[in-house]
Amino acid sequence: MTANIDRAQVRQVLEKLQGSWLFSFWGKDATKHIDVVAAGLEDFIAVYECKFQERPDPFKLLETNPVKAAAFLQIDTLLMSTEMKIMVWRVLMGCEITHVDFHYKIGKPPSLFVNLRTPDGHEETYSGRQSDDFRVLRHFGAVGVNGDLILQGYYAPRKV
Length: 160
Description:
Blueprint (H helix, E strand, L loop, with lengths): L6 H12 L2 H6 L3 H23 L5 H7 L1 H7 L2 H4 L3 H11 L3 E8 L7 E7 L5 E6 L11 E6 L2 E7 L6
Antiparallel strand pairs: 1-2, 2-3, 4-5
Helix pairs in contact: 3-7, 4-5
């Protein structure tokens, strides 16, 4: 089943959550970029539904949990690969980050692997290789528990 994402709805959500700076930055190419975001959301929904037999709805999440929706519907997340969007959604839906493996060396292709544990104890691994995928790292929340670092959650850069 195809998710038909409405361009006007995407624009409205981006204006609400990102402000007008994004459209100023995109300039005359704003419509083209909105179409890329909408197509990425359609792909995310279709692949997620096929993989997990449930249909994610980021726009409904905006109504039911605006803080989580703001984290997912920020431009950093929306430009990520489908696989990394799925990983972000899974974290927002309660999966625990158990391992992050990020490799970077100038002049070499970087890689990112994120392992999650679902609430029922299953392990999942996600990988990112495109440049937009690495932005995920700046949105993980880091806390100290008994002197240990715990990565917990995925957050928007500002309040809704």
